[in-house]
Write a structure and sequence with these properties.
Number of domains: 1
CATH class: Alpha Beta
CATH architecture: Alpha-Beta Complex
Number of helices: 7
Structural class: alpha+beta
Distance between the termini: 26 Å
Strand content: 15-25%
Length: about 240
């Protein structure tokens, strides 16, 4: 819902923030198409009509609605997005900007994997503990982890088995707790990683940024976006 951004961006969902002529979600979709991804699902809730307008003339995009978006967590939305999918999927958070190479190893991976980076200093990091490159745990508090291997970026590849395991982890959570406020990464993905290997693919010098507040917005607009545009050789796009 982007509550921390409301003082500066209150007329659109975070994924439709415009950066030098291109939205965050628009850039991700462009990169996915260039990599050969044929179908994209956007899970909508807050300001869903904005996404309906965005997707209106793009037949490869479908929208899936989480009507309980205000009272559930990110895993509830991901479960809706995955539906009964019986193939591999790439999961991307809507509020991130990143170099195109962040997708490369994930698209080439044979199994389940999530992208991690070196420290960005951006604030509100999710730290990843992944000894020998295999996910073990995550936390927003680094001292809670046995070790820190990198920062979670927000790009994850799920195999067919991984998609099923994530849905099952969420179903178990709902039965145990009686609500759907489960995070997809620190909750479901870590639980799945205890049952099957999930690679944590490190690119230590990856340039990327997440937008949760006005300071992160300024960082992505003024520092991250110009650099990723230059590296990807795409001008303002």
């Amino acid at each position: 819902m982007g509550a921390r951004l409301r003082p500066v961006v209150d007329d659109r969902p975070k994924g439709l923030i415009d950066m030098h002529g291109e939205t965050l979600v628009g850039r991700s979709i462009r990169l996915l198409r260039a990599a050969g991804v044929a179908r994209v699902t956007i899970v909508v809730g807050h300001r869903a009509d904005d996404y309906r307008r965005f997707a209106a003339d793009q037949p490869d995009i479908r929208l899936a609605t989480n009507p309980a978006f205000a009272t559930t967590g990110s895993m509830a939305s991901l479960a809706i997005g995955l539906g009964d999918l019986d193939e591999d999927a790439i999961v991307l958070e809507s509020d991130i900007a990143y170099e195109s190479r962040a997708l490369d190893a994930l698209l080439a991976a044979a199994g389940d994997a999530t992208r991690i980076s070196g420290p960005t200093g951006a604030g509100d990091e999710v730290w990843v503990d992944a000894p020998d490159g295999i996910l073990r745990s995550m936390s927003k508090t680094a001292r809670d982890l046995p070790g820190v291997s990198g920062e979670l970026v927000g790009l994850t590849r799920l195999s067919r088995r991984g998609c099923t395991a994530m849905r099952e982890a969420f179903a178990r959570f709902e039965r145990r707790h009686g609500h759907g406020r489960m995070d997809y990464e620190t909750g479901a993905l870590v639980e799945v990683a205890s049952e099957m290997p999930v690679a944590a693919v490190l690119v230590r010098d990856l340039i990327w940024g997440e937008i949760d507040d006005d300071r992160q917005l300024a960082r992505v607009r003024d520092e991250v976006w110009p650099l990723i545009s230059k590296r990807d050789g795409a001008g303002n796009h």
